[in-house]
Amino acid sequence: MQFLVLVLILSLLLFYNFYWKRKSFPPGPPPLPLIGNLLELSVNPPGYSVFKKWQQKYGNIYTFWMAEKPIITINDYKTMYETFVKDGETFNGRSDIGHHMDYIRGGNYGIVFIEGEPWKEHRKFAMQVFRNFGMGRGLMEEKVGGNIAFLRCRN
User: Fold this and answer.
1) Residue 80 shares a structural domain with residue 131
2) Mean pLDDT split into 10-residue runs, the chain, 155 residues
3) Full-prediction pTM beyond 0.70?
4) 44: which residues sit within 8 A by CB, 6+ positions away?
């Protein structure tokens, strides 16, 4: 009897993992319980080769799993444009990967991983630093113009 209950519970977990939780997402590699596709990502370095393989197998839109979190990947410009520009309000904001960053970096920090007011403050600070080091002043244009003038004088 206990064996039958165990088999039933295991069957329900497998059904949930391989069918139910994936049914509303684009196709993708089947996730393992608890770890998702992390094993496949770590076994096949560099990681981008796995993404290329998944793109060839599942198409330009596919879902993979970071532990129990689904990640939907878009690999063509037209779909990205339609998703993020034409229908941007639906998909605005950043992914909620805070709990992963807490584990990896000890917190959800940096201009890439935050949003809202803290993001505005970080961006303002970063832009000020970039401006202090010459970004946005046309330094490249000055250098190219100087080199062209030098070459014209030589001939």
Assistant:
1) no
2) 88 75 84 83 76 92 86 88 77 60 56 74 86 72 84 82
3) no
4) 50, 53
